[in-house]
Amino acid sequence: MKHVYTGKTKDVYALEDGNYLLKFKDDVTGEDGKFDPGANTVGLTIDGAGKAGLRLTKFFFEILREKNIPTHYIDANIEEATMTVKPATVFGNGVEVICRYRAVGSFLRRYGMYATEGQPLDGFVEVTLKDDIRQDPPISEDALHMLGILSREEYKVLKDLTKEIGNIVKEELAKKGIDLYDIKFEFGRVGGDAHVALIDEISGGNMRAYKDGEYIEPLELERLMIVE
Ligand SMILES: Nc1ncnc2c1ncn2[C@@H]1O[C@H](COP(=O)(O)OP(=O)(O)O)[C@@H](O)[C@H]1O
Ligand SMILES: [Mg+2]
């Protein structure tokens, strides 16, 4: 097993059979000890956060597999807090795709002149560059194409998959009376044909979820969603 990358919340290893192993850590993103799914720094460490994130990730990726939606998922080992995945090549140095159902977070900070807090957004898709130094700038389809990060065909697939997967997560949460405000995904090129597939994770650390108007912390979200 070869160490490939140390991320903020996961470590990445290459397995001998060519697949990757993601090790989920107890570190969560945020600032000054406060959780923030949009943050680019590790804000705090919570016991059990890694396993909880993996449990929710496994739950959603297995639903996607049943629906034949392309992802990197192979299997998960909750005890070890590891997930086996197909290796992906990311677009440029990595992009993030956000699907928004309500105006909060960076959307509200940027467009507060026009948007009001919590305003419904109907699955608005937004792409940002993974660039910590430049605070993950949003980027348009034209710029992605012009800069050679993503082709127009790939962009369309990515946008359609984002809406489809976002809606699946939203519906699963709704079954428990939970309201999804926004969610962040990562995509990459997977397999010999380099098809666009969902990679990384789908956990409480990547979304904002509310119940009865109250924000739900990632660990609590996992407890509400996964009934053992
Ligand atoms: N299937 C995959 N193939 C290659 N890289 C992946 C795959 N799934 C996730 N990754 C990458 O592994 C890293 C996971 O670690 P994480 O702590 O989330 O990193 P980051 O600090 O960049 O958010 C991310 O950079 C993500 O893009
Ligand atoms: Mg990450």
List keywords for this structure.
228 residues; alpha+beta; Phosphorylase Kinase, domain 1; D-amino Acid Aminotransferase, Chain A, domain 1; 27% helix; 36% strand; binds adenosine-5'-diphosphate; binds magnesium ion
Outline of the structure:
The chain has 228 residues and is of the alpha+beta class. Helices cover 27% and strands 36% of the residues. It folds into 2 domains: 2-88, 2-Layer Sandwich (Phosphorylase Kinase, domain 1), CATH 3.30.200; 89-221, D-amino Acid Aminotransferase, Chain A, domain 1.
Q: What does the model show?
A:
Belongs to the SAICAR synthetase family. Residues 4-215 form the SAICAR synthetase/ADE2 N-terminal domain. Pfam families: SAICAR_synt (PF01259). This protein has two domains: 2-88, 2-Layer Sandwich (Phosphorylase Kinase, domain 1), CATH 3.30.200.20; 89-221, D-amino Acid Aminotransferase, Chain A, domain 1. α1 (49-66) crosses α5. It is 27% helix and 36% strand. The radius of gyration is 17 Å and the shape is globular. It is of the alpha+beta class and 228 residues long. The relative contact order is 0.17. The structure holds adenosine-5'-diphosphate and magnesium ion (MG). Magnesium ion binds next to loops.
